[in-house]
Amino acid sequence: MKIVPLFFAIVFESFNYMNAQNNNSNCYICHGQSTLSIKDSTFGIIQNFYVDSVSYNKSHHANLNCTDCHSEEFKKFPHPKKALSEHLKCLDCHDNDLVIQGEKISKINNELKKSVHYQAMGNKSDCSFCHDPHTMELKTSPLWKIKNTYPIEDQMCIECHDTEYKWFKGGKQRVKLKAIHSTISNNIQKWQGKKCIDCHTKGNSRHNIIFLN
Description:
By secondary structure, the protein is mainly alpha-helical. The chain has 14 helices and six strands. It folds into two domains: 86 residues, no CATH class; 125 residues, no CATH class. The strands form three sheets. Strands 1-2 form a two-stranded antiparallel sheet. It has a two-stranded antiparallel sheet with strand order 3-4. Helix 1 runs antiparallel to helix 2. The termini are far apart.
C-alpha cells in the first residue's frame, strides 16, 4: 500500500537533484511517460502531456530548455496551480513574419480565426490543438484503431469527430457521421484517397475549416 507514496518520493528527490542541471532531463522523469494524460473537462478529449525526447531533439526547438518557454514555476514539484493555468501560444515567441511550410504564421492565424473550430472554442483552438507544440508535427492519435486506419491528416479530425457525434456551431448534437457521409461509402472509388480537409477547407487553405450543408 506504500508503493505510490514511495514512487512520488523517489520522483521528488530525483527532480530536486536534477534541478541543478541545465537540461530537460528533470522534466522527462514524468513527461517522458507516454501514458501521462488527462481528460479535458470541456470537450472530453484526452490530452496527452508526453514529450518524445528523440523527436524533440530533432526539432527546431531542440536547443531550448523547457523553461525557456514554460514558466520557471514548473521547476517546482508538484507544479503550483498557477503554473498549470499557463496557456502558451506560438505568437508569444514567434512574430507574424515567421514562415512555416511556405506560409506566414500571420496568414495561418487569420485563417484559423475564420474557422468553425475558433468560432466554437475561441482561444482553445490554437496551433497546439492539432500540432505538437514541441515538434510542430501533426498530433497522431494514441488510439490504435484510429492510428492504423486513417491517414495522419485525418487522425486529429476523427479523434473529436468520431462515429457518435459531431460538433456544430450551435453546440454539440448527436449525429452519426457515417450517415452524413453515406455518399462517400456508396461511391468509395470516387472518394478514395480524399482527406477531410479536401472538402472542409476553401481553396488552398488548410486552417480555415468550414461547415458544409
